[in-house]
Design brief:
mainly alpha; Arc Repressor Mutant, subunit A; 3 strands
Length: about 110
């Protein structure tokens, strides 16, 4: 596979991969929490109110996707540079969607007068 083919493959698969990772809202909540500060497993479990097995599965998914890393010897979870990049990109998408929905809502109210 050439470098151009690898790049094209990454570009074609990055959005579906991100959508799969964040198809569960708990993973997105983890992303937002870790963006604020690194957290221990116990702190995440209490904040999210999930059982340990569920949290472990979510963290493993985020770690395998290189979005979250576990820091040793302190055993805290933190966002990787990729995780910060994805968080910022998702925040931008969220803002644009909210702006678009406001516009659609305003257009919808024009016809009701």
């Amino acid at each position: 596979m050439s470098a151009a083919e690898v790049l094209a493959d990454i570009q074609e698969n990055i959005i579906p991969q991100i959508c799969r990772v964040f198809s569960n809202p708990t993973r997105y909540r983890i992303l937002l929490l870790l963006d604020k500060e690194p957290r221990t497993f116990t702190t995440l479990m209490k904040t999210l109110a999930v059982n340990p097995k569920v949290l472990n599965d979510h963290l493993n998914t985020l770690i395998m996707s290189k979005i979250v890393a576990k820091s040793y010897p302190y055993n805290v979870y933190t966002l990787t540079p990729l995780g910060h990049l994805i968080k910022d990109a998702l925040a931008e998408v969220d803002n644009k969607l909210r702006e678009s929905l406001k516009t659609v809502g305003q257009l919808g109210s024009v016809g009701r007068r």
